[in-house]
Design a protein that fits this description.
By secondary structure, this protein is an alpha+beta fold. 47% of the residues lie in helices and 13% in strands.
């Protein structure tokens, strides 16, 4: 039995069984034990079909590491097998070209990431790639409809038949529901039974919502993250230590002075960032390697400008913050504080010399490990102390924004503000150090940060109702708006 035939048989059987329960058994008010027994039979059927498939198919359609233990989980992928390419080989309202596209998509979904990237890259060179994208979007939509139908079927079964266990089972069921999947009946269940809805509040979902809000209207932190110059302006107005800087220099205007850093104003991911110890000792921050002489650096930056890796010939020359006193020049480590209006969720420490290394800390001074890569602590500054934590908290309270990542350079004498961020990168480079986001590697932190985000929104609302003015931010926003209007 092949992959498609097995999938069609398996999911058609499950679907029929679920509909029979809803149509007959729920209305008959069967006993709780009987309903549980019937659901267990369906689960056993799923396991049996999985075992049969794994024995007969050449390879699984996906990596099944353990039997799926509930109908809701298996229903998510029903359409990938039954609706798309049924066992009789005749597509249900799908033409031959679309069926071929869907089979190709299923094949790509079964690959590991590297193979999938290569396969998609090959498809991008074909004229039919746009059609492939359209079919993927349609498959996702159909799959979501089938998933929500099964989800509501299970919800109805639980509400009609289970007594004291209702709350526990619904909590378990809704734990798999994202914010945009909640409908009115489910929301009523949550309200009446006071069920926790963890998935409806994650940092990821809240950041997307905030980004959309920023597209539609003005948000208080907009100018704060507009560019590095504006960020430094706010720091000076708020008396927050920051490195001395010169902005908007053309490449031919830059004089390589020992103890400075060169950065493109529109740069990201350390592209075009160089640490100057002297004219013959320059460090390429992105490559974590010596950059050669100043002439070598100029030639590299000219190439980056020509190919568009750096968009504008406009650079920042900044004071070099060293973790050791002069005349030693050792790049300072970064502390990136994940703040939530007066609270700190975690701290990411980054060392950029002699190589790039990461450490995550909590506010109790303990290292966060879990699924994160573990680097030796030789080049770590250790967890931030109470004075450093207090500075990060106080800065976050100056801006009525539920989440700010506030980056500091840890110098030998003090911390210096580097920049403000409302959306953290690090998850899409595809390299060895990609996916360094804590909430990406450990989803429990995505929920924890989502909870802190909502609590921060509540504290902001309370402060505003109590008359807090945010005078420094208001004046800063006025100055920035006026500057942009003149341009």
């Amino acid at each position: 039995m092949g992959r498609v035939e097995w999938g069609a048989k398996m999911f058609d059987t499950i679907k029929s069984a679920m509909r029979r329960i809803v149509r007959e058994e729920v209305t008959a008010c069967m006993a709780e034990a009987e309903l549980a027994d019937k659901l267990s039979n369906i689960t056993a059927l799923i396991k049996q079909n999985i075992a049969e498939y794994q024995q007969t198919a050449d390879r699984p359609a996906c990596d099944i590491k353990e039997p799926l233990n509930n109908v809701a989980a298996i229903a998510v992928s029903e359409d990938c097998c039954s609706r798309y390419t049924p066992s009789d080989g005749i597509a249900r309202n799908i033409d031959s070209e679309s069926r071929q596209m869907r089979e190709k998509i299923l094949t790509i979904l079964a690959m590991n990431q590297d193979d999938a990237v290569q396969a998609i890259g090959a498809e991008m060179e074909k004229d039919s790639f746009s059609k492939l994208v359209d079919e993927f979007i349609l498959m996702k939509s159909e799959n979501r409809e089938q998933y929500l139908e099964t989800l509501n079927t299970l919800r109805l079964c639980i509400i009609k038949q289970y007594g004291l266990e209702q709350k526990t089972l619904l909590t378990k069921l809704f734990d798999a529901v994202t914010l945009d999947e909640f409908d009115r009946p489910q929301f009523q269940d949550v309200s009446l039974m006071r069920l926790p809805i963890f998935q409806a509040s994650t940092l990821s979902s809240n950041l997307v919502r905030r980004r959309r809000m920023r597209q539609l209207t003005m948000v208080p932190e907009a100018y704060l993250t507009y560019n590095k110059k504006f960020g430094e302006r706010f720091a000076k107005m708020a008396n927050i230590p920051c490195p001395k800087s010169q902005y908007g220099l053309r490449l031919d205007e830059i004089v390589p002075i020992p103890g400075t850093v060169i950065k493109p104003l529109d740069g990201a991911s350390s592209r075009g960032v160089y640490l100057i110890r002297n004219t013959d000792q320059i460090w390429d921050v992105q490559k974590f390697a010596p950059a050669g002489s100043w002439n070598d650096v100029v030639n590299t930056l000219c190439r980056d400008l020509e190919i568009g890796a750096i968009h504008h010939d406009s650079f920042l020359v900044q004071q070099y913050i060293s973790k050791l006193p002069p005349p030693e020049y050792v790049p300072a480590n970064d502390y990136k504080f994940y703040t939530f209006y007066g609270e700190i969720g975690a701290i990411l420490e980054i060392s950029r010399y002699p190589k790039k290394e990461y450490w995550w800390w909590n506010t109790e001074g303990k290292q966060i490990k879990g699924k994160m890569p573990l680097y030796p602590l030789e080049h770590s500054m250790g967890p931030p102390n109470e004075q450093q934590l207090a500075l990060a908290r106080s800065v976050s309270l100056m801006v009525p924004c539920p989440h700010l990542r506030i980056d500091f350079l840890v110098g030998h004498d003090r911390m210096y503000l580097c920049e403000f961020c409302t959306f953290s990168g690090g998850g899409n480079s595809g390299g060895k150090n990609s996916g360094m986001l804590l909430e990406q590697r450990m989803p429990s932190y995505d929920r924890q940060f989502g909870k802190m985000y909502l609590q921060a929104e509540g504290r902001i609302m309370e402060d505003l109702l109590n008359g807090k003015q945010f005078e420094t931010l208001m004046e800063f926003n006025r100055i920035c708006a006026e500057e942009l209007r003149k341009k």
